Amino acid sequence: MSEHIDLPCHSSRSSLLSSSSGYNNYRGLLNLVYVLLAMGSGRLVLENLLKYGLLVQIDLPVKFLRDPTQWPALTLILLVNIFILITYYLELKAKSILLQLVTLIMLLIFPVVYIWIRKPNPVGAFLAVSIYLIVFLKLVSYIHINWLCRKQYI
């Protein structure tokens, strides 16, 4: 036993994860992480299903189609497409800028009046007004670019 005392039991070398080791194929480690993540997530999903059951309401779109007025913010978000189509039609026919200006003003006024009358959930109303504002800015840009292109080619 005394002859092995001076021999070190460990030798120093670079780690497999360091850049100086020369090893750069970590596919197995990455696969292990994926498997562990999937198993952990699967366990949580199974545990929640066993504890609470399936909480998804499958008939929610049917309820919306029966009475869309019960969902004022969603109805408001769907109605923004009308303004987009009107603006596209006015640009396609190259109508006057006054009609486009009226459409843009209506785009800003309509959600405010609708929310004032219907009083939807504040979160849904905020989301709807945000979408209307984004669409307003995009339509202003669309009209302006088309006006510049029309002016350049005429």
UniProtKB/TrEMBL annotation:
It is a multi-pass membrane protein. The chain crosses the membrane at residues 28-46, 71-90, 97-117, 123-145. Pathway: Lipid metabolism. One of its GO terms (biological process) is triglyceride biosynthetic process. InterPro entries: Oat_ACAT_DAG_ARE. Its EC number is 2.3.1.20. One of its GO terms (cellular component) is endoplasmic reticulum membrane. Keywords: Acyltransferase, Endoplasmic reticulum, Membrane, Transferase, Transmembrane, Transmembrane helix. It is found in: Endoplasmic reticulum membrane. Its main location: endoplasmic reticulum. One of its GO terms (molecular function) is diacylglycerol O-acyltransferase activity. The keyword NADP does not apply. It comes from the Eukaryota. This is diacylglycerol O-acyltransferase. It comes from Didymodactylos carnosus. The lineage of its organism: Eukaryota, Metazoa, Spiralia, Gnathifera, Rotifera.
